[in-house]
Design a protein that fits this description.
- The complex is a heterodimer of chains A (266) and B (414).
- With 266 residues, chain A is of the alpha/beta class.
- Chain A is 19% helix and 25% strand.
- In chain A, a hairpin with a 2-residue loop joins β2 and β3.
- In chain A, α5 runs parallel beside α6.
- By secondary structure, chain B is of the alpha/beta class.
- Chain B is 31% helix and 20% strand.
- In chain B, α7 packs parallel to α8 and α10 packs across α11.
- The termini of chain B are far apart.
- Classes of the chains: A alpha/beta (266), B alpha/beta (414).
- Chains A and B meet through β2, α4 and β8 of A and α6 and α7 of B.
């Protein structure tokens, strides 16, 4: 009888052979929100109101009500989020196959490029150079673009707006097509607000990662953090959204499993 | 010669902060007519519709002919100062702390002789004076005699300063400095002699033209403040609430829409969240501490200003959800006024007509410039009134609303 791998996984988690890495930004009202022109509908930022705190409003208990949009904080984008994915089957948070929500992650380190150029675009060429070192991206993997953008703790620097809009790194059109057509990825994740670059509106098509990924039934993860603690390959990602009926996405607690020797945080 | 007001010394932190007291505030219902007029900056007396007599003090019927047809009518206030006295000893707790206090008797040209608080600039008896109505610390209308002609440092009279909310040497919070109106208010306050202006700003990643220049002014201190965020309001009230003398809530969300012109409630909710709940958050966090500091020396907490809209009186359907949020804010501000009155902090409601900004872009003139609105607000503080209606459109709406709310409702709903 073969050993149940989950039993040994549980033992490795207990012993610390396998480490759990939190890829999630703290939900707070201070965390910045996606910006749209004011005439558009707006996604709610995270807000919290105290219900009671061991006081006259509730003597023995503390709790809060919170509010936010589906795309607040570290969050998941379902295919139905974009017009290109609107007619796909099982395209919403309540219907998408949960088997997709746990999977291998490949981490593409673009931190040096993003530090040099906030408008850095990850290209297919760049990805192929990464594969030459780390191997071919396996089918049904998640591809996470590490930029260290999450280390910008000042919301102004994180948003990085000027009068021409936002300047944050993201994928070029060709790498999005390549990841879908040539590598069959499950989804794409980034550290900034949006899987697309800050200037992604000016690419062809506008917001190519949203347009093509969701059009092909793939997913997006945004506002990830701690990607620098993950190995280039070999991490297992957990990124389940809340089961919102016909939801377009949801804040998540993104976690990754890594082997102890791969964990870069020591 | 009135001695100019001097910048007060820093507060001695080992002395107890003086608690606010109020001058006698009970009035008959008839006498509240004087208060209602003073709240608008007007001096009105009862005029008998039958015999034409002008009467003071206010009564239920005419003291000359017993007619009940009494009408409050605006008066010029000109008259002769016939007697003065200075109170050095008072059993009233409020005046006891403020003696010596000057009083006078003025024979008004229209007939009655009235007891007045006396501005220090009035010439000795007998002299010509102008009587005006002011709101005192209890929010009630009282009469004060002023010199006919403007004298230097007129606003610095200590008795008058009990009636007004002059920003000179005071510290002011403007809750949103990122709008054109907010920026104009900040500049207006600095020009009026405010010592310090905290300028609230939300969403720091959105850079607004003019904001950097405003931030560079020496009297300005930037304050991260988001009225949609209870924690932000609480934190900033904890940080500066005990120093704010005047709070001007300039934050508003305005979307030009009615009910059918935009589906869903999100934009309307954003209006409500800032225009109504934002005021409630501010009032809960800043209200009590300001009320407790209403007698804290020369630069005590003195006023709270709400930027409402003339549409708070009557819904303007093409800006229908905005109107509704401002009506809600008006109602809440009346509650705030009642609560702040216990400390003597004045709540001033500002009802502008359409402001010349991006959300009124398609409306034809006349529109109120941010600078004109800021000037009206500073003047309201200097005059110590409760309600102002700046601009031609607001004045016209007000007149029509006072005449017939139903007629106005039908007129503007085309």
């Amino acid at each position: 009888m073969t050993e149940n791998p989950l039993v040994s996984l549980a033992a490795d988690l207990l012993s610390g052979q396998i480490r759990v890495v939190d890829l999630t930004q703290t939900l707070s009202s201070a965390f910045p929100q996606i910006v749209l022109p004011p005439e558009f509908g707006q996604c709610w930022p995270f807000r919290i109101e105290e219900v009671s705190r061991y006081d006259e409003r509730g003597s023995a208990w503390y709790w809060n009500n919170f509010s936010c949009g589906e795309h607040t904080g570290t969050h998941f984008d379902a295919p139905i989020h974009w017009v290109s994915g609107r007619d796909l089957p099982n395209n919403a948070t309540d219907t998408l196959p949960v088997q997709h929500l746990v999977g291998a992650a490949c981490v593409i380190d673009c931190s040096a490029e993003a530090a040099a150029d906030p408008d850095f675009l990850l290209t297919a060429n760049h990805l192929q150079r990464w594969e030459a070192v780390h191997g071919r991206i396996p089918p049904r993997s998640w591809v996470l673009m590490r930029t260290d953008w999450s280390k910008r703790s000042d919301p102004v620097a994180y948003q990085n707006y000027d009068e021409t809009g936002q300047h944050t790194p993201g994928p070029a059109t060709d790498v999005v097509r390549f990841l879908i057509d040539e590598r069959d990825v499950v989804g794409f994740g980034s550290e900034s607000i949006g899987t697309d670059a800050g200037q992604g509106y000016h690419l062809k098509p506008p917001y190519p990662c949203h347009y093509y990924m969701h059009g092909a039934g793939r997913y997006g993860l945004q506002c990830l953090t701690n990607l620098d603690l993950l190995p280039p390959t070999g991490a297992l990602l957990f990124c389940a959204p809340l089961k919102i009926k016909n939801g377009s996405g949801s804040p998540i607690r993104a976690l990754a499993l890594v082997r102890g020797e791969d964990h870069k945080g020591g | 010669m009135i001695p100019p007001l001097l910048r007060p010394k820093r507060k001695n932190p080992i002395l107890r902060t003086r608690l606010p007291l109020l001058p006698p505030s009970s009035r008959s219902r008839a006498a509240l007519g004087l208060t209602a007029a003073a709240a608008l900056g007007r001096f009105e007396l009862q005029v008998c519709g039958s015999c034409g007599i002008v009467q003071y003090p206010p009564r239920e019927v005419c003291h000359g002919c017993l007619s009940g047809a009494l009408h409050w009518r605006e008066q010029s206030g000109s008259g002769e100062l016939i007697s003065t006295t200075t109170v050095h000893l008072s059993q009233d707790p409020y005046f006891r702390e403020r003696v010596p206090w000057r009083l006078g008797m003025v024979r008004l040209d229209v007939g009655p002789t009235v007891i007045v608080h006396l501005h220090v600039g009035c010439a000795p008896v007998p002299s010509r004076v102008r009587v005006g109505a002011c709101l005192d610390k209890s929010g009630q209308g009282v009469l004060m005699a002023f010199p006919i002609d403007e004298v230097p440092n007129m606003a610095d009279d200590t008795q008058l300063r009990e009636m007004t909310c002059d920003p000179k040497f005071r510290k002011v919070l403007v809750t949103d400095g990122k709008t054109d109106v907010g920026q104009a208010i900040v500049r207006g306050l600095i020009a009026a002699g405010a010592d310090l202006v905290w300028v609230g700003y939300a969403e720091p990643w959105k850079k607004i033209p003019g904001f950097a220049a405003l931030a560079a002014l020496p009297q300005v201190a930037l304050l991260p403040l988001d009225l949609s965020d209870s924690r932000s309001v609480k934190e900033m009230a904890g940080e500066i609430g005990g120093k704010v003398d005047i709070l001007i809530n300039s934050a508003e969300v305005h979307r030009a829409q009615g009910i059918a012109s935009r589906s869903g409630i999100e934009a309307a909710r954003a209006e409500m969240d800032i225009n109504y709940f934002g005021l409630l958050r501010l009032a809960q966090e800043f209200g009590p501490v300001m009320r407790s500091r209403a007698a804290d020396g020369q630069s005590s907490a003195t006023a709270w200003v709400n930027l409402l809209s003339i549409y708070a009186l009557c819904n303007y359907p093409s800006h229908g959800t905005f109107s509704a949020s401002k009506a809600a804010a008006l109602s809440l501000s009346q509650c705030l006024r009642a609560e702040m009155r216990a400390g003597g902090v004045r709540v001033i409601n500002v009802f502008p007509g359409p402001i010349d900004d991006e959300w009124n872009q398609t409306l034809p003139p006349p529109k109120l410039t941010p600078e004109a609105l800021a000037k009206a607000i500073v003047n309201a503080l200097k005059d110590g009134v409760e309600d102002i209606y700046p601009g031609d459109v607001a004045q016209e709406w007000l007149a029509r609303w006072e005449e017939s709310p139903k007629t106005l409702e039908r007129e503007v709903s085309v």
